[in-house]
Amino acid sequence: MKPCSLTLFAAACLASSLDAAFYGAAPDANHPWAVHDENRPQPPRVEPAAVVGGAPSDAVVLFDGTEESFGNWVHARPEEKRKADWVVQDGYLLAVRGAGYIQTKEQFSDCQLHIEWSHAQQLLGEGQKRGNSGVFLPGGIEVQVLDNFNNPTYPDGSAGAVYGVMPPAVNALRAPGQWQSYDIIYRRPIVRDGVSLDEGSMTVLVNGVVVQDSTPLDGGGGHKKRKPLNQPYPDVGPVALQDHGNPVRYRNIWLRPLRPRPADGGTDGRLSAAATTAKRAEIGAEVRASAANMQGWDQMMRLLESQMYASNSAAWDVCNRQVSESVEQFKDLSTKELEIQRQQVMDLHHALSYLQRFDIIAADYKPAKELREIADGLGWLKQK
Ligand code: MG
Predict the structure, then answer these.
(1) What is the pLDDT of residues 73-87, one digit of tens each?
(2) Helical H segments across 117-181, by residue range
(3) Distance from the alpha carbon of residue 368 to the mean position of ligand 1, in angstroms
(4) Which of 91, 195, 238, 248 is deepest in the core (most CB within 10 A)?
(5) What is the mean pLDDT of residues 251-275?
(6) Protein residues within 5 Å, CB atom, of ion ligand 1
(7) What confidence tier does 237 reach under pLDDT thresholds 50, 70, 90?
(8) How far is the CA of 144 from the centre of ligand 1 (A)?
(9) Mean pLDDT of all residues in 117-142
């Protein structure tokens, strides 16, 4: 019997770090990550506000009640053509008749937008003429602002409607004079070369009540007309607020960009085959790079893991040699010595079986067969 190499002894204290690999379904043609993949980046930390509705740590604060934050906005209508300006008053932003729209200086794309608004307690007018304003998402799709607390209008023009596209599911408005909140999750339509890749969606909560639930944007709608899905749509644009001739107040406006969708170059979700191949190559290279800082058994296991993202012949040559040597060493051990190395035998058996199950290494890979025979001969495959 040959003495155990350092490779195997080193494994005893390091094997636990490998539990995470060879676990969920492996990467495939449309998913660069395995299911439950611990090589996937951790979500970045965001500090939530002390009170729900407040701006979290990564939000872009667009208006916080100060004149200074009103500097984030510009009037869309040139000065010589407008009769008035929006004003900051008692910590809110007031739409003034004749001022036209205001819009953010900064351009945004897909986003989470929080905004609060209120009307005067006593309002004149009916239907669309009663407290009309609107929140325009980047690209120009409007979430309607209106006092229809007790003022029926065409449903797809009610407060919380995606204007001209979809009525709110329910009317969750408070009475005029009270503050109302909108939480909007907006995914713009993606159109490339005249082809609609994603018609976009909007989720809207009015005062915490879901009124739009991933509503398809159906071309984006508008006043009195439908739009085709494949009309050109900008990737970025300002957030805008509407002056519809009615005095509407706004406060606490903040926005968070959303992570990109696969059609936008995002790598979470179901990707195209080309994007998956590119990302798998990148992850494979990262895992191989981390293996370069390891030694012995750990390095072998890490290199095996790298193969499930992207096969790499140089890495395979190294780990194949390590696997073959390890199995040869296991073959030389007595039953008693194998019992001591049982965790390592089973870890390697598990890794090789996993890689065979997902066609990453050949079904007839000899060291895998030999290792299975060792484990089976000791009755380990029948036990958990
Ligand atoms: Mg409006």
Answers:
(1) 999 999 999 999 999
(2) none
(3) 67
(4) 248
(5) 96
(6) 132, 134, 242
(7) very high
(8) 5
(9) 93
Does the structure show a pLDDT above 50 at 16?
A: no
- Hey, is 101 helix, strand or coil? coil
Residue 218 alpha carbon to ligand 1 centre in Å: 18
Domain ranges in the chain? Answer: 8-32+270-382, 60-264
Q: How many CB atoms neighbour CB 49 within 10 A?
A: 13
Higher pLDDT, 222 or 283: 283
Ligand 1 centroid–CA 244 distance in Å is: 6
Distance 82 CA to ligand 1 centre (A): 19
The pair of three-digit structure tokens given for residue 197, joined into one six-digit string: 């890749």
Write down the residue that tokens 């407008």 correspond to.
82
User: Ligand 1: distance of its center to the CA of 344 in Å?
Assistant: 67
CA dihedral in degrees (379, 380, 382, 383; nearest 10)?
A: 120
**290 falls in which pLDDT band (50, 70, 90)?**
very high
Topology adopted by domain 60-264: Jelly Rolls (2.60.120)
Q: What is the four-CA torsion angle of 62, 65, 69, 70, rounded to 10 degrees?
A: 90
Rounded-to-integer distance, Cα 276 and Cα 279, Å: 5
